[in-house]
Amino acid sequence: MKFQPDRSDAQTISGYGPGWIGIEAEKITTSVIIGSGGKRIDWHCARFEDLTPAHFAQLAELETELVIFGSGTRNRFPPPAWLAPLMARRIGLETMDTQAACRTYNILASEGRNVAVALLLEAPSP
């Protein structure tokens, strides 16, 4: 799917498909954290099962009001104990499948919100 967002100064996701997202003309095929202020950080996990508490501690280090977690091809939730670092910093976390996370991030970023999205980009099934 290709997006045609309203004019926004925030970094936005221009498209997505199985195992990839697009930011402007760049195609990204590995899990990534994107911030509305321009941050882009590799997120070292290839499958939901690879996630650890350290991945969510990394999200707590972001200076943001909300993190949207794109959990892959379907909506899956991390164990609540893993979210303690986010709660300690009063950072909200919303979980949804990766495609919905892309759309939600674009809407919030275009509104000028200080938001980040952590996208789990799983390799497509053969």
UniProtKB/TrEMBL annotation:
Gene3D superfamilies: MTH938-like (3.40.1230.10). CDD domains: Xcc1710_like. InterPro entries: MTH938-like_sf (IPR036748), NDUFAF3/AAMDC (IPR007523). This is Mth938-like domain-containing protein. It comes from Paenacidovorax monticola. The lineage of its organism: Bacteria, Pseudomonadati, Pseudomonadota, Betaproteobacteria, Burkholderiales.
